Structure formats: C-alpha cells, structure tokens
Amino acid sequence: MIQTIYIIILSYFVLGAIGFWFINRKKDRKTARKSRTKFITYFFIIHILFLSIVFEPFIFQLIGLFIVLVGLFEIIKLFWQSGFRHQKFWVAALLIYLIFSTGFLYFSRLGNELVLFTFLVLSIFDAFSQISGQLLGKRKLVPSISPGKTVEGLAGGAVVAVGTSVLLMSLTGISVSGTLLLAAGITLFAFLGDLAASLFKRKFGVKDFSALLPGHGGFLDRFDSLIAGGALVALLKLTTLL
Q: Which of 126, 131, 220, 234 could form a disulfide with 103 if both were Cys (CB 3.0 to 4.6 A apart)?
C-alpha cells in the first residue's frame, strides 16, 4: 500500500511540475526562478514528512512540535516588529493559534495511517489549489483578505484532494462516504487555516511570516493548513466521531 501511495505522490509531483511549467513559461526569469525554488523546497518538505510518518512517527511528532514552536516565534516576532500594534487582535489570534496547535500536537500522536491520510489530503489540496488557481483562476474569493485566492483555485484543489481520498480510504478504515466527508472537512479547515493566516498578515502589513523556507516564506506560510486540518482530525477523534 505504501508503494502505491508513493507512486500517487510522485505522479502528482509530475503533474504539478507540468502545471508550473505552463504557469511560468511566460513569466520573467526572477518569478520563474522563485517558482522553481518553491517547487523544489515543497518536494523535499513532502518527502521528509511522508518518510517520518511512515517509518518513524516519533520523528513526525518532533517535527510537529518544531513547526508549532517556530510558528509561535513568527507570530510573536511580527507583533514585536509592528511596535505591538493591534493588541486585542493579536491576543485573540494567539489564543486561537495555541488551541489549534494543541489539537495539531495531539493529532501528531494518532495512528500513523490516519495521520498519513490527513497529511496527503492536505498536501494535495494545497498544491492543486495553487496550480488550478494560477492556471484557471479568474474570480477572486476573498480579495480583501487574500487577493491571490480564487474560486477556481479552491474548487480545483478540493476536487482533486477529495477525489483522491477514495484511493486512500484503506488508511481510514471507514466507508467511502465517511472518507469523502472526512476529506471534505479536512480541506475546509485547511482553507480556513490558510485564510486566518492571511488575515493575520494583512492586519500587520506583511506578505510572509518570515523568510525561513525558500520560496514559501515562513513556517506558518507553509504549515498553516496542516495545523488547522490536523486540529480538526484531533477534534473528531476526541469526540469519538472518527
């Protein structure tokens, strides 16, 4: 099963590479170079997380803790750099982040099959929402918060992620309909997590949380959806709905 999943991952990376080639073929060299850097960095991130989940879940737990701590550092740093502006908003955002991070850390300790399913759905949604948005995006979704998000991007990413979940349903141990609902919930929370991160950045007037990940920005720029989606799965597990 793991070999089949890995073949799916590689197939999607090939499709992603083709998609990014079409996206970048008419762009200037600097923009195209940044896009390639982002794709290569994403390739390594996906493999590091995938291998840790499959072969040594404890490593994934440590990576999860590291992601949460770096994300907390990025939130505090932006607040400090702003001169401690928007204090009430920042405190509310910090509390929400801590709640979701607690859920994500609990999620990282769940069975590796459920963790792997969630991670794959999130990764596929994130990648193909960007690709479909850049290739087909015309209608802005929430321009006041995140000008780059489009209806077509959200729809494309959701369709591919939820559709692919059927191929991964052996990891969930539940029915087809249950797997589809779970994947839909994960993608919804991933989108909301990404939107919340965009709102925070918009409030503090920055494009990225930091520049720690080449082509991506900060850790929260890359892992906001993973934290939110993981928190949902943790909640479902704690409430015995999963």
A: 234
Beta carbons of 223 and 101 less than 8 angstroms apart: no
Q: What are the structure tokens assigned to 229, written together?
A: 């989606």
**210, 219 in Cβ contact below 8 A?**
yes
Which two structure tokens, joined as six digits, stand for 42? 């994403």
- Residue 153: closest CA among 27, 19, 24: 19
138 lies in which domain range?
2-238
Digit-coded pLDDT (tens) for 42-95:
999 999 999 999 999 999 999 999 999 999 999 999 999 999 999 999 999 999
Taking the C-alpha atoms of residue 169 and residue 9, their distance in angstroms, rounded to an integer, is 15
Contacts of 170 (CB under 8 A, 6+ apart): 1
Q: How many domains does the chain have?
A: 1
| Distance (Å, whole) CA 87 – CA 121 | 35
pLDDT of 95-124, one tens digit each? 999 999 999 999 999 999 999 999 999 999
Q: 116: Cβ–Cβ under 8 A, 6 or more apart, which residues?
A: 5, 50, 53, 54, 171
Q: Answer yes or no: pTM beyond 0.70.
A: yes
Closest CA to 220 of 210, 230, 229: 210
Residue 33: pLDDT band (50, 70, 90) is confident
- DSSP E strand boundaries for the chain: 140-142, 146-150
